[in-house]
Specification:
With about 200 residues, the protein is mainly β. The protein has 2 domains: about 80 residues, RimM (Elongation Factor Tu (Ef-tu), domain 3), CATH 2.40.30.60; about 100 residues, SH3 type barrels, CATH 2.30.30.240. The chain is about 5% helix and about 40% strand. The chain is elongated and about 60 Å long. The relative contact order is 0.18. About 10% of the residues have low confidence.
Length: about 200
């Protein structure tokens, strides 16, 4: 059984805006404005904590004020900082939907019973969510998070059961290689609830 993390990353600071200490945040929430809706945010190590107020949007990010950040230099110093909240403050993702952090670490097995390692990451390069699956010994495999490829997600028992589609875990036609990391649009920390595609 997998132990769920008690905190979830809701965004990452990607830069400063203006001279009054506003920050730009790439949000990982379903509704961008909700990045500040779940109470104070914390640094990954829990050493720093801020109240966050969303004040606008700019270039694919929200702009926000953090308590105690009053100038551009202070805001720029926070670039790259991931922002976390207590998971108990987040809404239940609903039936058939999951937070990325809940899927990472789950054991992966085929419907034939063969073990394939675990979920290393949940990625999205624009075509839908993908589970990166690996065993630490061989190259990882990208599995579409779709009804065709995923037979079952069992959070209680801590596993994902995958349909062994042609080319997925064998040499096949190599089409799974086309889904390897492309570009910089890695949303592996994205914590919007994900739902299997039909």
């Amino acid at each position: 059984m997998t132990v769920r993390s008690n905190r979830i990353c809701v965004g990452v600071i990607v830069g400063a805006k203006g001279i009054a200490g506003e920050v730009r945040i790439k949000n990982f929430t379903e509704n961008p404005a909700d990045v500040g809706a779940y109470g104070p945010v914390e640094s990954e190590d829990g050493a720093k904590r801020w109240t966050l107020k969303v004040v606008g949007a700019a270039r694919g990010a929200v702009t926000a004020k953090l308590t105690g950040v009053s100038d551009r230099n202070a805001a720029e110093a926070l670039k790259g900082l991931k922002l976390f909240v207590d998971r108990a403050k987040l809404p239940d993702p609903g039936a058939g939907s999951y937070y990325h952090t809940d899927l990472v670490g789950l054991a992966v097995e085929l419907t034939t019973g063969e073990a394939k390692g675990k979920v290393i990451a949940v990625l999205n390069f624009g075509g839908g969510d993908i589970l990166e699956v690996g065993d630490g010994k061989t190259e990882s495999t990208m599995v579409p998070f779709s009804n065709a490829a995923i037979a079952e997600v069992n959070m209680k028992e801590g596993f994902v059961r995958v349909v062994p589609l042609p080319g997925l875990f064998d040499d096949g036609d190599g089409s799974d290689e086309d889904m390897q990391h492309e570009g910089d649009d890695d949303n592996s920390n994205d914590n919007r609830p994900v739902k299997r595609r039909g």
